[in-house]
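Aim 2 progress update. The chain analyzed this quarter is reproduced below.
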Amino acid sequence: MLIYIVKRLAQLVPVLFGITLACFLLLRALPGDPATLLLGARGGPEEIALMKQRLGLDLPLWRQYLLFLADIGSGSLGRSVVHARPVMQLVLERLPATLWLVAYSTVLAVAMTVPLALWSAMRRGGPVDLAIKLAFTIVIAMPSFWLGLIFVILFAIWLPLFPTSGYGDDLLSRLHHTTLPALVIALATASLTIRSLRSAILAVLGSDYVTTARAKGAGTGRLMGVHVLPNALISSISVLGAHTSWVIGGTVVIETVFALPGLGSLFVESIFSRDYPLIQGLTIVFAVLVVLINLATDLAYALADPRIRLE
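Predicted structure tokens:
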């Protein structure tokens, strides 16, 4: 397993290199630049030229890219134009909020997936099964920002149960502030994992060893808890891991809707201000998080199913 982890981390290097190059070139293709946006209407041609020189935007593209790679190698990820601070400092300040939101939403998604998938599979074709499939089909068809706005109206304005913004100071306050955004993400995740787990449960229920367990007199609780659910969960791990990777990028929208001080909202701010170093640094951080989540998913899948060999 250690060799497998090292190999996967080594594969991260060319991936990150490609991401840095694509991000660098796409940013330079966008209209506008940080110097013009920072100076605004007060900046004349001379002031803008001096600002570009101070920011290094007057250098050839290849030299700007090499400086960007040097910033990555130093660990600072460059210096934010707007905040006038190293990008890594800003990332470390905002990263806990994003990781908390991803972890909290994943826990809520799993808490919804397991009982609802079991309930739906055990009542296949019945009213409960149809209601669960219909409800989560509607959820997955709704954009996350629209669902977030509906939750704000329902549970923060009409029923003032949760705040509409902020992160909280202690654990209870943090749970209170992030329940709505985490629930929005969890519903989108559960809409996929419930279908996957339900199909896996139905497949396992038709297996020979389940039939044998029933013939030996195993009760429903033991049958589902010992024989069915552990084997059905294996296929759902990949779906959960893949969707969690998507959630990393989805936090950009959710954090903006709920004004959470995470990497997503910082990313939106950096785009509007054309803060090249901050955009590039955050892109690298998001890429690393996605790769690490995919690696953790592969390891969890191998641990859950001994038949899977990491080679």
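The chain has twelve helices and no strands. The chain has a mean pLDDT of 80. These observations will guide the mutagenesis experiments scheduled for the next reporting period.
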